[in-house]
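Quick one, T. Sequence first:
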Amino acid sequence: MASLEDVRRAQANIHDIVHKTPVLTSSLLDEYCGNQVFLKAEHLQKTGSFKIRGAANAVKNAVREGAASVTAASSGNHGQAVAYIANRLGIPATIVVPEDANRAKVAAIEAYNGHVVYCGMTSAERIPKARQLADENNGIYIPPYDHADIIAGQGTIGLELLEQIPELDLVFVPVGGGGLISGILTAIKALNPQVKVIGVEPESANDTYLSLQRGEITAIPPSATIADGLRTAQPGDMTFPILQKHLDGLLLVTEAEIKEALQFLMERTKQIVEPSSAVAAAPLISGKAEVKGKRVAVVLSGGNVDLHQLAGFLPDKLHV
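Structure tokens:
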């Protein structure tokens, strides 16, 4: 299980790669939600998402251990991050993506000289393929979330949140495989356990919710949620125990609530984010979170949205 020391080492390891992303505020958002809301702008991060943090930590460590190439399985953002850091370090990267991968994300992977391989629709299909390709090419497989270096890298967001937002009460984090929220939990619960960390998951991709309810890792069929970065089949073997131990709650949001949050963020805060980011804001904007008068951080996990698909991600009308 990752530790605070692992997160601090990751912060030192990746400081020359990643941005310390800003925290954005909106008086209209505060008024609408009845809380002081702080948007952690990982959509402004290098490669357009938080994934560069874990990927940079893992790939740099792999190269130190002698890796000559890397592979990854990704719906897009992790693949972009691995391709970017591998290209920067001068080693080849092969990224296995789903058949319906976001075109903007695939184009970015290729722009970073990553070799793209299409396989299936779920992480359960992509991961074995990526492992196979790593074995065939004498490379190292870089997991999207279930790896100590990945979790520690994502945990650097938790360190930044505590530094940037004094007297923080709550953090809302989108949940896919669990790497992001596991890292944030590892950092925040070690430094200030009074801060509550709440996961948010699409109703149609509720593998973590079901796993927590049943007390064991539970797989689900492929999901069609617009939050493509959260379409995991099940939580990770390493991430799930961290959630079981530290998570303060998990909320499910509908596709309509995700769309409403996405439009609100774009129209009222002028931030272009992907649906997976809007998932974390959806409980506050919809009122499902049922919290008032708190200092609340929302992790906007990424901004790699395909503009050709954007109209389909938005509701016909936003009621405010």
